[in-house]
Design brief:
Blueprint: E1 10-12, E2 16-18, E3 21-26, E4 30-35, E5 39-44, E6 59-64, E7 75-78, E8 82-87, E9 92-97, E10 112-117, E11 126-131, E12 135-140, E13 145-149, E14 164-169, E15 178-183, E16 187-192, E17 197-201, E18 216-221, E19 230-235, E20 239-244, E21 249-253, E22 268-273, E23 282-287, E24 291-296, E25 301-305, E26 320-325, E27 334-339, E28 343-348, E29 353-357, E30 372-377, E31 392-393, H1 407-410
Parallel strand pairs: 6-31
Antiparallel strand pairs: 1-2, 3-4, 4-5, 5-6, 7-8, 8-9, 9-10, 11-12, 12-13, 13-14, 15-16, 16-17, 17-18, 19-20, 20-21, 21-22, 23-24, 24-25, 25-26, 27-28, 28-29, 29-30
Length: 450
């Protein structure tokens, strides 16, 4: 997540207010945008309340979150099926969506369909929030790191495996200046102000970068790469991406779909430089469920990895084991790229917003539920389109109960990818020895485990 500062909006014909999209964040099947004027809009799947509109309905077009109209939001971050937002002026963190394992930070596991403030963090300056599948972390202005949510593999970094339903301070980082956090499905990574890289949580595929496949309950320091100081880090579901001060790109972890970008499907237990991009300076990175995106200093965009729904953006649905230039956007300078689980969203310097990949829940924001294999402009949000002039707001009453659906109706069980068996218990998610797939029906995913 990167902070976004609101810019002044302007008016154009008919007194309609035009706005720019400052920042976007993407979850499993939903997307959220921060607009100039401190407005938040969201679209895609809403069955767990992750859109913040007070109901469980899908939205196929960006819709203003009315509950945030007066909250002066300055940054947003999506988890898989939940969302967080921060107001710098009021020093308040809000969260909403799927509440299992305490990932919302409110002291319980209740789903929330409208944004609610996290009381434990009230009054704290927050520099960054990172959300994974079921856990979250935050860096405060004082340099403290807090974590909360699911912790079955130690991804909270607290030295144990108990879930935490309110934010807890990560004592391992006391006195250590953490500059950036990233969260995957069940692992976490951090970069310090001194350029060191850390990993903790689930490590079966080497995604912690520590040279083995063991879990870590507290942050472990990744062996330094000679002459390189790390400045950025991002997590995919089970892989990790980092960028050095010199702009070199390193990846490690799971590579079943080529998401590491090394031209093969081999896992790596320590950071390896992506040689295909060694001659360019990488500016920013993002990790999806099984794909990776990188943006260079010239504003050119590259993607690789799992591409079943076109989420890499190269115009086909073949997995890519090495970085591919996203040719659709070569005539524009891209300034931001974010990955959802199976879709990707980007903002250009011009102020246009593009999305591509899986669209089955409307998460692409084009008004339909169709996949896109190349970037397609979201007209209602883009400067060269409608410039946010015709956005509608939440229509539901500000009450989760108005459209509440029981867990039995909402949640489905996903079969294990290799064993083909079914987890008999709903909401009893443990950890899988192999990858558990999300079915093409896009029903609520559950991972089975040991």
């Amino acid at each position: 997540m990167a902070d976004a500062t609101a810019a002044a909006s302007s008016s154009r014909g008919g007194g309609e207010t035009t706005r720019r999209v400052l920042f976007v964040s993407a979850g499993a099947s939903h997307t959220v945008a921060l607009l100039s004027g401190d407005l938040v809009c969201s679209w895609g799947r809403g069955e767990d309340g992750q859109l913040g509109h007070g109901d469980a309905e899908e939205r196929h077009r960006p819709t203003i979150v009315n509950a945030h109209k007066n909250n002066d939001i300055s940054s947003i971050t999506c988890g898989a099926d939940h969302t967080t937002a921060y107001s710098n002026s009021t020093k308040t963190v809000y969260s909403w969506g799927w509440g299992d394992f305490g990932r919302l930070g409110h002291g319980n596991s209740t789903d929330l369909f409208i944004p609610q403030p996290i009381r434990v963090l009230k009054g704290l300056e927050i520099r960054q929030i990172a959300c994974g599948d079921s856990h979250c972390l935050a860096i405060t202005g004082d340099g403290d790191v807090f974590s909360w949510g699911r912790n079955q593999n130690g991804q909270l970094g607290l030295g144990h495996t108990d879930d935490c339903n309110i934010p807890q301070k990560v004592l391992a980082f006391q006195g250590v200046g953490v500059s950036m956090l990233a969260a995957g499905a069940e692992h976490t990574a951090a970069v310090t102000e001194s350029g060191k890289l850390y990993g903790w949580g689930w490590g079966r595929y080497g995604n912690l970068g520590l040279g083995d496949r063991s879990d870590r309950l507290v942050p472990g320091e990744v062996a330094a790469i000679a002459g390189e100081r790390m400045t950025q880090v991002a997590c995919g579901w089970r892989h990790t991406i980092s960028v050095s001060e010199s702009g070199k790109l390193f990846t490690f972890g799971w590579s079943k779909y080529g998401q590491l970008g090394h031209g093969d499907f081999q896992d790596h237990l320590i950071p390896h430089q992506v040689e295909a991009l060694e001659k360019i300076k990488v500016q920013s990175i993002s990790g999806g469920w099984r794909h990776t995106m990188a943006l260079d200093s010239e504003g050119q965009l590259y993607g690789w990895g799992w591409n079943k729904f076109g989420q890499v953006g190269c115009g086909n649905t073949e997995d890519q084991t090495s970085p591919q230039l996203v040719k659709t956007l070569v005539d524009q300078k891209t300034t931001l790229v974010v990955c959802g689980w199976r879709h990707t969203v980007a903002i250009t310097e011009r102020g246009n917003v593009y999305s591509w990949g899986r669209g089955t829940s409307g998460q692409l924001g084009h008004g339909d539920a169709v996949d896109c294999h190349t970037p397609k402009r979201i007209e209602i949000l883009s400067v060269d389109g409608q410039a946010c002039r015709h956005l509608e707001g939440s229509q539901s009453a500000n009450s989760a109960s108005s459209k509440w659906i029981s867990p039995a109706e909402r949640y489905a069980v996903v079969p294990d990818e290799t064993l083909g068996s079914i987890v008999p218990q709903l909401h009893q998610v443990t950890h899988s020895v192999e990858d558990a797939s999300v079915p093409d029906t896009d029903m609520k995913r559950m991972r089975m485990g040991p």
